[in-house]
């Protein structure tokens, strides 16, 4: 239902020094209408230009400091509220080249009353 809003338009950017980017980042929103504790996010899968991103390269920050996806599993005191943008950063030496890039983002969420994970996905072509 909210899938087309997961990736925030015009949010793709390189991170780190301009002359030597250390990766790229984009802003994303939660696809579940109530917000969710970070420990209930099972996976954040990313593909850039069709290439899957390694889980270990991903960092998540809802405004309280970046966490690896492994650290999110035990972040019991942190939440991702519905409607709030979080920054997803990917470590990638050199960042992304200027121009258009196809970004695919999937969230797999563990919702207490659902017997299966909630899957939410969005794809957009964005420019740097």
UniProtKB/TrEMBL annotation:
Annotated keywords: Carbohydrate metabolism, Lyase
Record protein name field: C-deglycosylation enzyme beta subunit
Family: Belongs to the C-glycoside deglycosidase beta subunit family.
Keyword Lyase (UniProt): yes
Span of domain C-glycoside deglycosidase beta subunit: 2-113
Keyword Lyase: yes
Sample GO molecular function, one term: lyase activity
InterPro entries xrefs: CGDB
């Amino acid at each position: 239902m909210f899938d087309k809003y997961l990736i925030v338009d015009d949010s793709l950017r390189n991170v780190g020094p301009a002359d030597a980017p250390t990766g790229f980042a984009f802003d994303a929103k939660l696809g579940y209408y109530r917000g969710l504790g970070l420990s209930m996010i099972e996976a954040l899968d990313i593909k850039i230009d069709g290439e899957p991103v390694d889980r270990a390269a991903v960092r998540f920050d809802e405004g309280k400091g970046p966490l690896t996806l492994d650290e999110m599993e035990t972040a019991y005191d942190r939440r991702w509220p519905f409607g709030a943008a979080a920054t997803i950063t990917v470590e990638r030496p050199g960042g992304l080249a200027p121009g258009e890039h196809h970004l695919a983002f999937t969230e797999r969420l563990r919702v207490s009353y659902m017997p299966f994970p909630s899957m939410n996905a969005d794809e957009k072509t964005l420019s740097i």
